[in-house]
Amino acid sequence: MSDSVLEPAAAEFAAAAAHSPPVYELTPTEARNGLQDIQSSPAAKPLVDDAWMVVDADGIGVRVRVVKPVGATGLLPVVLYLHGGGWVLGSAATHDRLVRELCVGVHAAVVFVEYDRAPEARHPVALEQAYAAARWIQRNGSSAGLDGTRLAVAGDSAGGNLAAALALLSRRRGDVTFVHQSLYYPVTDASQNTSSYREFADGPHLTAKAMAWFWDAYLPDRARRNDVLASPLRADFGELAGLPEAFVVVDDCDVLRDEGEAYARKLTAAGVRCTSVRYNATIHDFMMLNALRETAAAKAAITQAIHVLRESLKSFPPVRN
Fold first, then answer.
1. Res 277 pLDDT > 90
2. What is the pLDDT of residue 3?
């Protein structure tokens, strides 16, 4: 483990987590329950209106949670959200607080995709389910109060990987258009061979062995990990040019830090408008973890994420009297 400085709450969380069995020694069900237990800590959550539905796009049925500001009327801009958890963990429950905050802060509908997780579903199942949800929003979303012309995609960690891949896939296929992509500490490459992987191989929190376990669950065929839809960092400039503007957040003390920043640099080099921010003294998942919500970094990052999405979607929350 690196001796980098952490915010006190992050250091406390990482120290406590180090006493739990590592994820790669658990079954997928045990690991999922573990994240659910971690996220059961009390956290203030804004009130929202929400509904579950199964959307259909060309025969692909996808379960989504549509989250809206309380009492919102008319067509709302949309954030298609893809959750993290190494493609294995995570759910609407674990990401509930963050999704609510984005919804209310941006004054947008957040469509949360409850994609089928690995290892029961391998790549590209989750990606195709997310694409089907995006296609439904743009074709039929108005029936649910969704403005498909103002559609952004966002995701954290493995969800950031899916969000980046979705932007690439939409450009390739041409029948879905995103105006923005927000990638929070994303997985962008399967090589696991960066300075941050070496520095933080043993944590804090996310380890190199854990990421190897996640990759093995999601895409066991190592040769296929070279595909840009699995490792977006491997896309060439021609594939990246013309992608929607991007906002990339990375954690300071995280194996994924360098590949996230490398992807942001490559987007910029390809002519994509991109902002990349590193929050110091943070660990992986710092925006999502309820235990870290009141840290200075989490507050600032979520505030910035909301501002970026609001500007990109041209969303203007109603003025309260």
1. yes
2. 62
CA gap 64, 61 in Å, rounded: 10
SS3 at position 179: coil
Helix ranges (DSSP H) in the chain? 8-17, 28-38, 96-106, 125-140, 158-173, 195-199, 208-218, 237-240, 257-269, 296-313
Is residue 221 classed exposed, middle or buried when 0-12, 13-18 and 19+ CB atoms within 10 A define those classes?
exposed
Structure token digits, residue 158: 């493995």
Residues 217 and 275: their CA atoms lie apart, in Å, by 31
CA 208 to chain centre: 19
Active site residues: 157, 254, 284
DSSP state of 22: P
**Angle at the Cα of 258 (from 255 to 264), degrees rounded to 5?**
135
Contacts 24+ apart (CB under 8 A), 73-76: 73/145, 74/145, 75/142, 75/145, 75/146, 75/147, 76/107, 76/108, 76/109, 76/145, 76/146, 76/147, 76/315
Q: What is the pLDDT of residues 14-51, one digit of tens each?
A: 999 999 999 999 999 999 999 999 999 889 999 999 99
Class of domain 8-313: alpha beta
Tokens in use for 145? 């109060």
Q: State how far Cα 90 lies from the chain centre.
A: 11
- pTM confidence score: 0.97
What single letter denotes the amino acid at residue 69? Answer: P
DSSP 94-144: TTHHHHHHHHHHHTSEEEEE-PPPTTTS-TTHHHHHHHHHHHHHHHHGGGG
Phi, psi for residue 207 in degrees, rounded to 5: -110, 165
| Collapsed DSSP state (helix, strand, coil) of residue 175 | coil
